[in-house]
Amino acid sequence: MRDIQTKTVSYLNNPFYYLGGITFIFLVFQILSGTFLFMNFVPAIGGAYNTPIPGAYGSLVYITNQLPFGVYLRTFHRYAAMGMLLFAFLHLFRMWSTNKITKPRNLGWVSGLFLVFLVAVIIYTGFLSSYTPQFEAWLMKWADFFEIGRRQYQNLLSLNFGIHLLLPFLILIGLIAHFKRIARPKITPPLSLLLFITGFMFILTALFPIPYLPETPVAFEGTVPTFMQQISVLLIFLGVCVLLALIPLFLKRKQLFAKVDPKRCTGCLYCVDVCPKKAIHSIANGQRVVAFVDETKCQGCGICEGACRSLAIQLYNDPSKSIQEEVRAIWLTKN
What we know:
Strand content: 5-15%
Order of helices and strands: HHHHHHHHHEHEEHEH
Radius of gyration: 27 Å
Number of helices: 12
């Protein structure tokens, strides 16, 4: 018991260290729960639950009211979508606050903003696909704008649902580009943190499920945004993402990069193994093999400098180094 009480918590269990990985976990939750919902959902215009052809709303009533644990499945799917968007924003804010958006990290920043926009569109099309009276009225604004009749309206509903199914695959493709820049990306959090997030989602779903649906749809009496209002919100959000993606072009800072002193390098090449960006490789230096840093790939993380046993690697343009040198010079003048 004493060992448990005095044991320090590893920083690896800090959720803020794995904001990107937690976002990916919520995407997995979305895909798994969405797959089970897809098995029972009918994206078609039809009657209520007790009619021969239930349609979208009728199948939604069946999932929510009749399917075992269906209401919790819908709740879990919705909360996972909100959690994915929330942690994606937190991940972007952490990258911004730690100044990890300029070169050579700008690819991750730009691709991350693109993925956040796709997440927002997924949530939007998901609500429209649910075809409850409120979002049926939203989708009707689309039909009124394009002057679509009932036959074409079914195509509009199917198109919206198809986009909702396609976007997660586009996100997976985008994640390949987002992760490819890292040699050993931390895609998922540690098992303990993963189990905590999963358990928290189960508890949240059980305590606050979405309400059951009436078998016959009730007309929505609230304010319904027009087609142009709906599209304007998406375009404004897209414009904000584009502007944020352009920020690294206007931020100028000295790029940190490591450099190897070939005279002190012993050729152990341990730095090659620990470099997360694969920016270090071996070259021939006379009859010896030494390490060499590709400055175009180096992100100045300093891992290789700390790992080098012979002190042959140093970071250049590091402001902390100049401060240390100033302090050392002041100390020497006074002593």
